[in-house]
Amino acid sequence: MAGQLGETDLSGSLTLDQRGARPRVVASLASGALHLADGMAVLGLRTATSPSDGEGRQPVASLLPDATLSPEALRSFDAVVDYKAEQIEGVGDAGSVLKPAHLAMRLALIDGRFMLSPASVDLAGGFVSSDIYIDARSAPALARYDIRLSPTPMGPLLAGWGLAPRETTALARGRIQLSGRGETLRETLGHADGRIALVLPAGRVGMARASASELDMTNLRAAMFGTRSGNGVDSGGGMFWGLGQRLGIGGDKAGADDATHLNCGLIAFSVRDGLATADPILIDTDGHVVTGRGEFDLRGERLDLRLQAQGKSREWFGRPAPILIGGTLAAPTVLREPVDLFRPQRLFGFSMMLPDVRAIFGFVDPDEAQAPACGTLLRGGATADVAAAGPAPKPAELALR
Q: Diameter of the chain by CA atoms?
C-alpha cells in the first residue's frame, strides 16, 4: 500500500483479520517524513488546556497529553504495527540538532493492553528509547513509563541554555521511570510514583554569547555552569562581568576563558502521587558546587525550583545570584532571585531605610564549597558532606541501569 495520511506519506503492508472475536490488524509501515500532528491524531493524543489564573480565564496549553484511556475502545480490536520514519516534522526548526529523526517503534494492542516497545528516536547526537505499557482492562487504567536517554552530547542537547556545541564535550544520560493510574494519560502522570534522573559525567562545557532575548537561559546557565576566568572573575555569574557581557562591552564570549570543566552532576527527582521533589540536584564544576531544591507538580504542571551556586575560592562580587525556575512545563520562567540591599531598620528610635550588610556581603563568595566525591555520587552513595546537608541521594546508577 502507498498513500497519504494528512501531510504524512505512508507505505508498506497492512492485513485485517476479522475471523476472531475481535478484528486484528497487522501492519508494517514506513514514512519519509512523519508530521507530528498526524501521528498524535492517529494515537488519539491532543494537547490539554487548563484555565489561566488571570482575568478572563484564558486557556493555557499543557505539555502532557490528555488522551482518554477507555477500556471499551482499547478492547474493540487487536493490533501489531511496526513503524519507521526517517524524519519528524513539526518538532524543532529545520536543520536544528534538536530535531528528532529516525523513529522506529512497535505498537501492540492486545485485549485492552497497549504496549509501545521498543520505541527509539535519534536526538542531538544520541537517542531516546522507551517502553510504555498501559493496561486498560479495568478502570482506572494502569500506565508504566520507562524512557531512557543514551549518553548524548550536552552541547547540542542544551544549546538553548547558552552552551556552545563545538566547545562542549560533556555528555548527559538519563532515565524516567513512572507508573500511575488514571482515566487519561495526563491523569496517570498526575498520580504517578517513580524516579527521574539525569547524570552528567565529567567533561568540558563551553559558553555561547548571549543575546538580549536569551537572558533567562543565560541566568540559568550562569548558575549551573559559571566559569572562572584567568583574572579570578566569575564569568558565568559575576555581577559586573555579566552586565558588561550582556551590554556587549566585556569581550568575546567565544574565548577559551568561557569554558569550565564539569566534574560530575546529578539532577534527580523522586515522584510521589504526581509531585516530583528534587532528590538531589548537585553539579560540581571547577569553580562552583551547584545545589538545588524545590519541586514540580505533574498535575498542574507547575515548576517551583531554586538553584544556588557556591564558589570553591573566595571572590569579591563573584557569587552567582540564586536562580528561581517557575511557570509551567510548557512555558517555564527563569529569574534571578531579587536581593534587597536596603531594609527598614530602627536607629535611635527612628525607623529608616538602611543598608542590609548581610545582603551586601552576600555577593562575596566565602570559599565554603566542598567538592563532592563524584564517583560516590554517581554510584548513588552518600558522602559525609551530602549526608550532613540532608537525605542521602538516591542511587543514580540504579535509576539508569
A: 95
CA distance 371 to 175: 25
Paired residues of 73 in beta bridges: none
> Residue 204: what pLDDT?
87
How many whole angstroms separate alpha carbon 187 and alpha carbon 72?
18
pLDDT at 58: 44
- Residues 286-324 pLDDT 10s: 877 888 999 999 998 999 999 888 777 665 555 567 888
Tell me if residue 14 falls in helix, strand or coil. Answer: strand
Q: How far apart are CA 280 and CA 262, in angstroms?
A: 17
**Do the beta carbons of residue 296 and residue 64 sit within 8 Å?**
no
208, 162 contact by CB (below 8 A): yes
**What's the pLDDT tens digit per position in 173-184?**
999 999 999 999
Residues with Cβ within 8 Å of residue 36, at least 6 apart in sequence: 88, 89, 90, 91
The answer to whether residues 288 and 310 touch, using CB atoms and an 8 Å cutoff, is yes
pLDDT of residue 269: 95
User: For the residues 331-341, what does the mean pLDDT come to?
Assistant: 76
For 84-105, what is the HEC assignment? EEEEEECCCCCCCCCCCEEEEE
* Integer Cα distance of 167 and 184 in angstroms: 43
The answer to whether residues 199 and 378 touch, using CB atoms and an 8 Å cutoff, is yes
Beta bridge partners of 148: 129, 175
Enter the pTM of the model: 0.75
Give me the pLDDT at residue 99, please.
Answer: 79
User: Where is pLDDT greater, at 396 or 201?
Assistant: 201
Are 318 and 365 in contact by the 8 Å Cβ rule? The answer is yes
CA distance 89 to 224: 32
Contact 329, 301 (CB under 8 A): yes
